[in-house]
Structures are given as structure tokens and as C-alpha cells.
Amino acid sequence: xxxxxxPPRRVTIVDVAQHAEVSTTAVSKVLRNAxxxxxxxxxxxxxxxxxxxxxxxxxxRGMRGQTYTIGVMLPDIRNPFFAEILDGVTxxxxxxxxxxxxxxxxxxxxxxARVTETMIDHSMDGVILIAPVSSRSRLQHVASxxxxxxxxxxxHSTTYDSVADDDIAGAALVVDHLADLGHRxxxxxxxxxxxxxxxxxxxxxxxxxxxxxxxxxxxxADDIDIVSTTYTQQGGYLGAQQLLARPRRPTAIFAGADIVxxxxxxxxxxxGLTVPDDISVAGYDNTTFANFEPISLTSVDxxxxxxxxxxxxxxxxxxxxxDKPAAHIRLSPTLVTRRSTAAPPR
Amino acid sequence: xxxxxxPPRRVTIVDVAQHAEVSTTAVSKVLRNAxxxxxxxxxxxxxxxxxxxxxxxxxxRGMRGQTYTIGVMLPDIRNPFFAEILDGVTxxxxxxxxxxxxxxxxxxxxxxARVTETMIDHSMDGVILIAPVSSRSRLQHVASxxxxxxxxxxxHSTTYDSVADDDIAGAALVVDHLADLGHRxxxxxxxxxxxxxxxxxxxxxxxxxxxxxxxxxxxxADDIDIVSTTYTQQGGYLGAQQLLARPRRPTAIFAGADIVxxxxxxxxxxxGLTVPDDISVAGYDNTTFANFEPISLTSVDxxxxxxxxxxxxxxxxxxxxxDKPAAHIRLSPTLVTRRSTAAPPR
Lengths: 346, 346
Hints:
Two copies of one chain form a homodimer. The first copy, chain A, has 14 helices and twelve strands.
């Protein structure tokens, strides 16, 4: 047996104090964000903490009732939009003692329940749930147990805070842009939402509704054409295959997410068509993929990094003050036009 | 204050038993993987567990000394190769009670120390460290505290298991392919490794060495041309800019990772050159990005999913038997040729 009962000595507050050449009291004050520390002192202590990889011991943190960990649940690490959100969360927390642990690969209510129960079991100080599909009552349950911020759902909950973008406005930006270019047959690929209780909250459903409203506003009600798949590359691929097989195929496809647009571009290339000469494509999320030069995808920027920063800020405020009123932030999206959209073929 | 002291009742083993219409003893047996359960019984219980989102309570698990969580540290969630590895880990663990928690965004030894300390604090049952940059002594420290598998480092440690691909062979596959197509001026973009103690273990350094060996084997020693940046999209972009500015620019670029190739393709497009007519590009990792039709990148397949499965298998074996001899798996890579490589321009 290896000597598991006597692990190597861990870095202590004394080591940090010696390394930073300050007193242990000073280290303790900095770590608690207490008053009476100078910026220079804080800088010295944080540098020593970073260099030694120090974390307050579980026991010491337990005494204060905190684990200094934040759980972030995200549905799909392949979707580059979630990396943007995570960057914002990480950035906001980088000056704090909080460490993020991710619960990945959720693809349904059961998986989400398992991830959130794990985070609660581990006594995490708070959780950020990105684009959860769980029922509202399940989210309320989580939020009544641990400080919770929900990202990417339009909520009016009084138990948890939320951050989302204005998906009605975002969808309208795309339709306006394509209609201005002269398109009429503008199709949309949505993520199928079957639960009636969730439809009013889910960004995918709201984006589809925004598309419908904008098409009507442009007098294009008869050209509304929605294919329901999923917000995945495969979903975009299958959705585009359906649209390309239409007797009068659309001249533009509005994919509900950049990762969906990836699959759309793939189906278009396989069909021997070119973008934007034969067909225009727009996405949603303005990920690094959209900005990738050989792709150059027109996309709605919902400021993922800012969403992440806001979520982290709300969560720290909630941890500090459990009974503060729930805040619901809606960020206004913008459109970034690139080479994938142009006037329709004559 | 919200009633944090009295959280809603959690799902118990009794709920699972009622839902599955079996005895609580039967549920307990299935959860412990004990003998004397039929396949039908296991299926019923697992279905109920999934539907209710049940996890053994922290207390019950604590009594058995397990938390049923596995920590996975990964350096960059933007690199699609790590998603492949994670898929393999998730797949292998999907039939078990283990839940994965990810420690993301490590970019140096201090960040890695913080993540691994957090995982140890949380009493995780085991950790998988993907492409860590920490010193060998730091990895030994972690492994002496918690069962550990290291992925993507060539190790002979006696304290932890490891899984990596044969990077010398992988680099040779690329050079052989390009040389066979008629290329001589084949350049390589590597991830700079400055620590002499780590060079023998790091896949990036070994890939560069494999490139050198293969170039010499083809009589191309004078054409060896390595640019040192990082394994990121930005690193590929900056590396390719340097190479394209050479008086006699290379006819082929071997990027050390697919994510590096992304940046290479970007720089080439900005320079007004086309792939493969003006210049061939090959990557490493065979990610979904390489397989993406509009990109179609020739790439080395190091079987990320299989790497993940192997890592999870080794970890569960190590958790079950702490003093088993350390195992070091080397998987043989293969080359997937696509449209991004062709004969050099005349």
C-alpha cells in the first residue's frame, strides 16, 4: 500500500506569509478581504498564494462555512459559445479565492439533476447553471439549497438571479439584415422545444419566435420556414439537408447558434453549393469559429464574455447577501456581418 | 433569510426502490456492484436512478470513504481534442456511479496546483490530469495523495498511470505523407518547451523531435525549419506569419495540433494564398474541426476517445487497488489524409 494516510505536507498560511515576507495575520486578512490591508500588501500576498498554489485548508474554510468553489454546469463543451461565457466567469473570479469546477456533458434533466446534486454534495459556495433544460421547479429546488445564477433562460424567478440576452431582438437583427440584402425565402433552424412550461423561458424558443415576428414585420409571413432539430453541428447538418431538398430552396438560412451553422455549412458544401453565392448563412453567438477567417460567418454577438462576468458578479453578491432581491439581466445583442451573407442569387 | 438550514428533501434510496418497484436492499446491491443482482434488476434500478437524479447521500458515501466524483483537469476547453478525450472518459464512466467534475483553464503550474489542491480538498476519488505542465515532482505529490492518471505525457512514473500516443511515430506519419507527395520544404510549428526536465515527457517536444528524425530519414536535414510558438490558434497564426515571410517559404506546414492548424489556415487566407494549391497544411489530433467539410484538414488521429476510455479504466483499477503496479499505455496513431495536403506547386 502506498502511504495514503500520510500525504506530503500541504502549503500552509505560514508558508505564504514567509514567502510574501508579511505576517500570517496579514495573509489571513487579505484572504478574508478584510479591511486594513494596503494594495501593496494584497499584491504581495496574492503573488505568494499563486506561486505556492496555496488554498486555505478544507478545515479552515469549513470553519467559515465556505469551500471557495463555484460549480458551473454547462451542456456541451464542444459549443464554443460556452467557452466565451466561461472566460467571463473565470475573469471575474480571477482576483478572488474562488476556484471553478465544471459539470460537463449534460444532455437532459436526469443528467442535470446528477450534476447539481454532486455540486450540492460538495458544498460548493454557489452554482452557475448555463442553458439548463431542467424544469423551473427543479431550478427552484437547487436555488433554495445553494446560491444560484441561471444563464441563458428568460426567468422571473424570485429565488435565483439570471443573465440572458434579448433573443427576440437578436433574431430580428438577422432577419432585418437578410431582408435588407433582398432575401425573402429566409429559413430558420431551431432547437426543438416540446415542454410547454419551458417555452416561455428557453432562448431557442424565443429566438424562433423573434424570427417569426421579424418575418411578419417585413411582410414575409408566407415565407416563414422553420426546421426543428437541435443546437448541435449534427442538428444543423440535418436541418440544412431538409431545407436544401425543398422544391424552392431558401436563399438564406438563419441558424439558431454558430455550432448549428457549422453543420449547415457542411451540408451546403456537400451539396456542391457555395456560400454566399448560392445561399447566405447566419449564426448566433459570434464565437471564435464565426470569426475564423476561412469561415467568416455573420453572427449575432450576445457578448458571451459579458454574460459570464455578470453571472459571476451576481453570484458573489448572492453569496454575500442571501436574501437580496433576485436580479434578472438582459443584455442587448448586436450583429456582426461577415462574408457568409450577401444578396441572393438572381 | 431564505431557509437554507432546511433544504427541500433530497431523493433517497427509498424513493429509488419505490420507483423501480424493487427492495431497498436490491438498490443498495446494484449501487455497490455487489454479486447477486440480475441484469433486469440492474437495468430497473439504473433507470430509476437516472429518472430521479439520485446520488447516494454524501453521508452514506462518506461512510464508505468515497465521494463518487472524479476530477478531470484540462488545460483549454477551446481545444476540441480535449473534448474527444472527455467523451471517452464520460463513456467509460457512464455505467458507474461516478460523476465527473472538470478543472478548466489551467495555463501554468500555479493554476494547476490550485486545481489539483481543490480536487484533493473535495476528496475526489481519483483525478485524470490532461496534458499537465507541472513538474514531475508535483505530479508525484498529487499521485501520492489521490489515485491519478496522467494523459498526454510520456512517463515512467511508478506512482501514477499514464496514457499517451506515440508522438515520434505520429510526426513521422505526417512527414512521410508530405515527402511522398514531393514536398521538401516542410516546416513545423511547435509548442515551445523551455524546461529541460520536462522535454523528455512533453508530447509537443517529442512531436518536434519526431519531425526532425523523419526529415533526416528522408534526406531533408537541411530543410528542417521549426517555429516555436504555442499550441493555440493564436500560436498557429503567428507561427505561419513567420513562415510565410521567409525568402523561400515552405510548401507545407505541419502544425503540432489541429488548433494550431486553425491559426495557420487563417494566416494563409489573409496572405491571399490557397490550400493546398499554394501550400499544404497538416494538423495533429484529428478533431471534429479537421473533419469539418469546408476545412478538410489532413491530421494525425491519436484516438482521443480511446485515450479517454483507457484513462478512465486505469483510474477505476487504481481506485480499486491502490498498490497495483503503474501502467503506461502508448497508443499508435494513424494518419487521416484530407484535401488540405497535395503535391507542392511547380
